[in-house]
Design a protein that fits this description.
Layout: H1 2-28, H2 37-49, H3 52-71, H4 76-101
Helix pairs in contact: 1-2, 1-3, 1-4, 3-4
Length: 109
């Protein structure tokens, strides 16, 4: 059961980890920000996270991470991965609080 919970936590957290990694990469290396599909997907992903699909995804990922923490009995590497997933999800929760707290919205050009 512990392996199943950890696998689900990894599966549901993977899009958020990837999105944060891409955003960090593009923010730290400005020359990569040029017109590219990967940069567009990374920056558009943050708009999708603030919608209902993103909220549902964060809730599902947080639930599976919490269930994996509760079952315990994992290796040290699994524990570190779960802590990392928790930090990434906390960053997205802070982002959502900022997004909704400042009344941001996506305006079409």
């Amino acid at each position: 059961m512990q392996i199943l919970n950890f696998s689900l936590a990894s599966l549901f957290s993977a899009p958020f980890v990837l999105l944060l990694a891409l955003f960090t990469l593009f923010a730290s290396i400005p020359s990569l920000r040029g017109p590219s599909i990967m940069a567009d997907v990374a920056f558009l992903g943050f708009y999708l996270v603030s919608g209902p699909v993103g909220l549902t995804g964060i809730a599902a990922a947080a639930t599976t991470v919490w269930l994996s923490f509760r079952t315990g009995q994992g290796s040290r590497a699994q524990l570190y991965a779960l802590i990392f997933y928790s930090v990434v999800l906390a960053a997205f929760v802070l982002y959502l609080a900022w997004w909704h707290g400042t009344s941001q919205k996506l305006d079409a050009p």
